[in-house]
Amino acid sequence: MQGWFSGLTLARKQAVWAWVFLAVPLAFFTLVRFWPALDAFALSLSRWNLVGPRKYVGLANYERMAADPVFWQVLGNTFEYLLLGLPASLLLAFLVAFHLDRIQTGQGLLRALYFLPHLTTATAMAWVWRWFYQPPPVGLLNAWLTALGFAQQPFLRSTTQALPAVLVPAIWAALGFQVVIFMAGLKAIPRSYYEAAEIDGAGSWQILREITLPLLLPSLVFLFITTSIGLLRIFDLVYNITAGGEGGPLNATKPLVLSIYQSAFGRMDMGYASAQTVVLFVILLALSLLQMRLLRSRP
Amino acid sequence: MKIIRPGRIAAFTVLFLGGLVMITPLLFMLATSLKTGGEVYELAFLPREPTLDNYLEILTHSRFGRWFAVSLTVATISTLSVLFFDSLIGYTLAKFRFRGRGIVFVAILSTLMIPTEMLVIPWYVMAKSMGWLDTMWGIMFPGMMSGFGVFLMRQFFLGVPDELIDAARIDGLNEFQIFWQVALPLVAPALSALAIFAFLGNWTAFLWPLIVTTSPGLYTVPVGLASLSGEFQTDWEMIMTGASIATIPTLLVFIVLQRNIINGIMLTGLKG
Amino acid sequence: MPKLSRSASLLRGLCGLACGVALTVGMARHAAAVEIEYWQYTFKQRVEAMDALIAQFQKANPDITVKHVNVPYDNYRTRIAAAIPAGEGPDVTQLFYGWLDDYIGANLLQPLPPASFDTAAIDRDFFPFVQGMKVEGKYYALPTAVRSLALFWNRKVFKDAGLDPEKPPATLAELVDIAKKTTKRDASGNLLTAGIALDTAGQDVQWIRQVLVNEFGGAPYSADRRKVTYNSPAGIAAVQWYVDLITKEKVSELGFLTDGVTAFRSGRAAMTIDGSFRLGAFDGQKGLDYGVTELPGRDGVRSNFASYWVNGITAKAKGEKLAAAAKFLAFITTPAAMQLWMETVGELPARVAIAQTDAVKNHPKYGPFVRGLSYAVATDFVDETIQRKVMMDLIDTVLLKKTPVAEAVAAAASEEQKVLDTRK
Description:
A: about 300 residues, mainly alpha, MetI-like fold, 2 domains, two-stranded antiparallel ribbon, flat, C: alpha+beta, D-Maltodextrin-Binding Protein, domain 2, 7-stranded mixed sheet, 3-stranded antiparallel sheet, 16 strands, globular, disordered N terminus
């Protein structure tokens, strides 16, 4: 054995070592990632309730999906989370990071305050927020609204307000992480760039547009992708913020992943659930391709 | 030297108020956990007569201690596994030259695109046929390695000079020793960042542990919390107490390790 | 509650000790004791009652041990369905009566061994609706307890509103009247005390569909239970009456204090409709002085909704495990077990003779439920989850989308009909 190995060239030896190192990981990724992904595709073409045999049904699950108004509503909700949540959370995070970056004293403390919510579990916080959103006498938000002379709001009990109301804690929880990433990006910009620009007489708006934002692009792209994926896969919060995890009044807050969960583990409709996961996969794939394009165009 | 401008003070004030708003839910949770029965349904933020009764009740009558142990075990083992394997894979992909390297890297990277939700059903079926349902191994097997970690570690290993590795080879170290003794210590900051991500990810994981566990003795903290609000029970003060118990240790760890955690995340942002 | 649960856990500890001793003794006599697994969903009082029953059973049968597993309600069905074909999971399991067809269809259950369970005796001794558990002449499952709905009222809130605290409403008209008198709002119109706590995620769905529709002179389903029939003037009137409590009489709001149980428990609702299984939770609330009465009727018609959880033997149990499972199932459906279950959980005995004793019938809290049981109907569900959601959506459509009631009822009926049409 030893003799066989020592007779190899250095390059050969390296290759042997590489495959030895990769053997277990490759087995893992094949069995626990690729194979299940392919299996989910296969399941999406069958009818199966976990018990008894799988039955191949062709595209029936997809046809059913296309004809199901609840599916389209759920898909719409999923994109609403994305389209409302992405700009709101990135803008907010940038504003906080931008100003926090320029503060000398107490920066660590402030950053910690913003970061703390990121450490909580969605399950626990969903309940706190649910309580905040209650009508009087217990709901804090409504108490403040009425104290300030505004009408009280139904929040989670409204078909239009429920989804944004669920989004707020999602943004709240992710904000600290985004702020830290933005601050890292800001710190990486050499001071001399700013000084040079100031000597050239550039205004602060111009500096922001022509120096800060372009140089912050890598952080921005990173956050754009991680935040989008997070929002498209929102589940824990929605599940716990509505009693019994139904997804709001008239499915107003139900996202795709909750619908997948209910199909698979509430109704044991594995085929239909898999078909919905395929849709989610396609959306995430499109997003990843977008990311690659964005990164390629990076200066 | 620095002149404190009024704009800065205003910015500080606004940021500080914003920070207070950020931690309001956490304070509310803690305050509610110190209230007794009827007080919960009043609007007052602070408890009139703070009491630890709820904590005593929950710690004696639920299996919180056990859930904690499970969460800690699962998160620790998964994190160690992720650290070891992801850095080994990252190192191999960064520093070895062999045919198929590019394909392996792209393949592992592409697993980032597969949503967990899509894998949960096949994992369930797999766990069922392997007899892993309702076991601790069942909770953690899907998270033993992560594509994200491989990507992160490869980026960092690319920055390790080849000369160091060649020198170690001349010294007669074998390839694993080179990885373990020479290369790995050089990327320690990246390891701590990855450790934080892996640990937090496992600590807060909900969907998979919820699905794979059956016995209350095997719940992780988030699943145990969810089970406190069963179909017919809503003890709000208990739920807030449970939520506090779940959050406090994480907060303590954060306060102790604040600098490492923040630096780790900053590093990731720059390399990612 | 703390006091109760502390003594219960002490009891459990003692029982555990006793079982431990019994087990050791048993082990000495029998080389291998049979272990069977029992599953039910997580609910404090049910778990305590079953722990006590298991301790008694093991004492009487030292050669059998019962492993008691609790699963959160949300995941209960999935767990069972996944576990049994894999050869894991329970030998005896609790299931909602509405799931029986599903379970039999999926080969999860086996018929109760006729040697231990006499069909004729069950027909005679249990409440008649339990015969729903009989398929082709064979019983597949038996309940320990059955439950019905009743109206809970808060004496203190009644007194504060100047009402007689011993006079709960007997009719729907009285209910509205009392609710209006007990509702309290602040200057800006915020609800402080609800006349009645309403919650469609709770029992209201059953109250509307199985009770109100009947009391307004209609029927929710056809006699053969294959057709949805509440899309009728009576059904529309029933839904309208319920919605009016919120929109017209303004005596309640959905989501008030997050849910109906919390609203009533915290003393901020004068009345609520709920099941006997809630007695435990309400009794544990300090300072809550409440009474229970039969559901209010209308024009002399009273109706009620019965439901029950049953225990069945799974397909997994074979040989000596099957024998042990049968023995255990027989034990937990004995009159003594039913008595213990009622005292711990608040659910009523499933055997008519035990439920209809004077002690139970005149009991201030169990009495109204038992009286309600005599005319209660157990809805024959195809898929309780979906059928419940249909009703919840119906109420939400009217309240939030301002859809006319008639239109919303028609839509719900056709939606629920689709579910019934999947029945084999």
